[in-house]
Amino acid sequence: MVDEVTKKTLGQIPLLKTKAGPRDGDLWAQRLKEEYQALIAYVQKNKEADNDWFRLESNKEGTRWFGKCWYIHNLLKYEFDVEFDIPVMYPTTAPEIAIPELDGKTAKMYRGGKICLTDHFKPLWARNVPKFGIAQAFALGLGPWLAVEIPDLIEKGLVVHKDKATS
């Protein structure tokens, strides 16, 4: 059911082992360490493939994440703020990734700019608890969402490149 590109992408991201959320003390610290290791590996592979498309950091507790993601369309870079909180039931519940500035511009988004991952990603996440983490959420959730939605929003004139917006 999973295509070869998806399998290759997943194969480059270390799977996580610790089933722990923010309320699990020392286990959460272990899970957070695994999350960072997976993210670092994924970012390194992306850079090697000349496919660098996000920056991400967290608060000290690892419960609030924020950064930038970008999409290149017709040789123009469209950059967006990205954010999410780790759910209390994590990793059983996937994080809800948000791009607040796109709120209300597409039907494939919930209030607050949370991207819609219900149909495709969340069932896959549920089958892979606790192996999937933030890196997998970006690789299989945010990345494909950007690839589908951003070109459509640009075509509709709902997203305008920053250089065109100022001229």
UniProtKB/TrEMBL annotation:
GO annotation terms (biological process): protein K69-linked ufmylation
InterPro entries in the record: UBQ-conjugating_enzyme/RWD, Ufc1
Keyword set, alphabetical order: Ubl conjugation pathway
GO molecular function, one term: UFM1 conjugating enzyme activity
Active site: residue positions: C116 (glycyl thioester intermediate)
Domain of life per record: Eukaryota
Coiled coil residues, start to end: none
GO cellular component: cytoplasm
Keyword Iron appears in the UniProt entry: no
Function, in words: E2-like enzyme which forms an intermediate with UFM1 via a thioester linkage.
Family: Belongs to the ubiquitin-conjugating enzyme family. UFC1 subfamily.
Protein name: Ubiquitin-fold modifier-conjugating enzyme 1
